[in-house]
Every structure is written in structure tokens, then in C-alpha cells.
Amino acid sequence: MKILIIGGGGMVGQKLAHNLARTGKLNNQAIKEITLADAFAPPALSTPASFEISLVTADITNADIASSLISNKPDVIFHLAAVVSGEAEANFEKGYSVNLDGMRNILEAIRLTGNGYKPRLVFTSSVAVYGGPYPDVIDDDFQLQPRTSYGIQKAMSELLLNDYSRRGFVDGVGLRLPTICVRPGKPNKAASGLFSNILREPLVGIEAVLPASKSATNIFASPRSAVGFLLNAATLDTAPLGDRRSMMMPGVWGTVGDEIDALRRVAGDKIVALIKHEPDPAVEKMLSNWNFPNFSTDRAKALGFRCESTLDEIIQVHIDDELGGKIPGLNT
Ligand SMILES: NC(=O)c1ccc[n+]([C@@H]2O[C@H](COP(=O)([O-])OP(=O)(O)OC[C@H]3O[C@@H](n4cnc5c(N)ncnc54)[C@H](O)[C@@H]3O)[C@@H](O)[C@H]2O)c1
Predict the structure, then answer these.
(1) CA–centroid distance, residue 270 to ligand 1 (Å)
(2) 233 C-alpha to center of ligand 1: Å?
(3) In the predicted model, is pLDDT for residue 126 greater than 70?
(4) Is 150 known to be catalytic?
(5) pLDDT, tens digit, 9 for 90 and up, residues 85-123
(6) What is the span of the domain harbouring residue 127?
(7) Set 96, 130, 150, 164: catalytic member
(8) Could you tell me the CATH number of the domain that includes residue 209?
(9) Alpha helices in the chain (DSSP H)
(10) Are residues 157 and 50 in the same domain?
(11) Does the global pTM surpass 0.90?
């Protein structure tokens, strides 16, 4: 089993690679090789692996480079590379180049390989493909009307995935990821970053600015669940998907206020006091475009996708996976 992770230097890509290195298997088959490809040199994994891990610097906006990534015919390709929402809004050309042209370059590289080559291609789409006005509950049949360039690029990539799958060039699965929270490491340029920042920084004793109202809503899953989604997508029977290759992943719906309440239950008042409310009209305007209602994710659940059921659990996953089971902020 040969695996390619494009965007393998990013947050989700690194989590996935560590998991695969630890287990050494996918779908009960031994992994022979993993390639981590990213626009910058992906960091070497600290988790020891029983197979070869190649670290490749590759810009998928270049069709020849995208093609070189496919030349060893990986059995499973995780396409996670993207310019995230805030940056795709700020830099129109870069967003289309990476998020749309990059996807097309990968699909074309696969198609042109020919000779019956038909890998599983797991693509990370986003909850950002949705736009209001919303019904009370969004299900997988709700029409896509994204309100950001990022959401439009993801929606177009989903259509490409449907068509290349329908034509038999790839076996695609598209995952509309909820906001992955708590995002470890440094903040990135995703507009949704604040939902993680207000949890992550206080837990280690650092003040965090909340630039939005407490009523701002989102749908969340932990990085651990995101890896679970990807592994399930890589191994599930795709026959039930038909020509609709993408679906919303399960998540926990909540407001910023719900997040703060969960943080108080898990970590206490001292930690919550580190959140400083400084409303920023630009952030509030962007979030008003989202304001998601709840989601029905029955289709994904029937296919075996699972995540946490409360925000408390999501925070606890972060404490266990990133902070060694402790809350350093309580000691500062
Ligand atoms: N993290 C979330 O909350 C979330 C939510 C919804 C969807 N997603 C999607 O999931 C995927 C992974 O998210 P993440 O949080 O790990 O993002 P990330 O920003 O940490 O990782 C994305 C990686 O893509 C790489 N990349 C950008 N341009 C590239 C190019 N031209 N060629 C090759 N690599 C390039 C970046 O260098 C980065 O390492 C993305 O597709 C993202 O849109 C993430």
C-alpha cells in the first residue's frame, strides 16, 4: 500500500501521517511507503515508522510537479493542500490557483496516468461550501451557495471530484470538514481561527482576544476526529455514494458562548478569565455569513463517520493529545 498526502506538512496532514506511522496499516494492509508533499519542506515525523516516509517539496499549482507526485501510482491519495479561508479571501489569485487549479492538476495527473490506474482520492472540502439563507437544519441535499471565494473553490472541486469519479478516473470521497478545533500550534489564516484561539491560549495561561460576539455559531470536530474521518474515507465502500461523492461530516454545533461554558466546566473560571472580548466589525461581518444552523449528517453516520458529541469532549481531546492530560494555565 502506497500513500500520498498532499498538504502533508499542514496540521491535519501531520496528524494523519503520525497516525499511519504508528499503526503501519490502512484497511488491514501493511503500508509500504508514505509520501508527504507540501509547498514547503514537510517536517520529519517524530513517530518511528516501519516503512519509508518521503518528504517532498511540491507546489501543486504547477501541473508537471503535480504529475510527478502521482508517478509512483499511490493507492490512496489524501488531497489536503489548500489556501485557507482568510487567505483565499485576501488573495483572490492564489486562492483559485491552489484550491481550484491545484485540484484540477492532481485529477488530470491521475487521469493521464491511464492503464486502469484508479486510486482512492480523499479530498477535504469544508462546511464553507454552504451559504445562507439557511433552513432550520442543513442536510446533504441543501443547495450549495458559498459566500466566500474559499467556499466557491471547494464547491467547484467537489463537482470535479464527482465528474472524474463518474468517468472512472478516480474513486473519490469528499469530506466537508467542520471547523477543526482545538487547532494546535500557532494560529493560521483561517477565518475560523478564533474558535480555537479562545480555548488553546487560555489553557496554557495566555490571554486570548475574542473578536466576535458570543452568539457566533460554528460546527466543530477535534483533530483526532478529522484523522478518523480521513481513515474511514480511505477505506469505505464507495458504491453507496453513487455520483454524490461529497458529504458533510458529523460535528458538534455550538456558539462561542457554548465554547466558553464548556471551557469553564473543563478548566474553571481562572482559565476563562483569560478571554478578552474585543469586538472587531470585520470579523463579525464575515461570521455573519456563516451563522450555521444545525446539520443532519445521517448520510455520513451511516457510512461510519464518527466524532465527539460535546464541546467538553473536544476540549478534553486537546488536553489529552497536546498537553499531556494537564492544564498548564492553572499553574501560571
Ligand atoms: N482545519 C480546519 O478547521 C478545516 C476545516 C474545513 C476544511 N479544512 C480543509 O482541510 C484541509 C487541511 O486543513 P489544515 O487545517 O491541515 O490546513 P493547513 O493550512 O494546516 O494545511 C494545508 C497545507 O497545504 C499546503 N499548501 C498550500 N498551498 C500549496 C501548494 N500550492 N502546493 C502544495 N501544498 C500547498 C500548505 O503549505 C499547508 O501545509 C484543507 O484542505 C482545508 O481547506 C480544514
Answers:
(1) 33
(2) 17
(3) yes
(4) yes
(5) 889 999 999 999 999 999 999 999 999 999 999 999 999
(6) 2-178+222-248
(7) 150
(8) 3.90.25.10
(9) 11-23, 63-70, 85-90, 92-95, 102-113, 149-166, 193-203, 223-235, 256-267, 269-272, 281-290, 298-302, 311-322
(10) yes
(11) yes
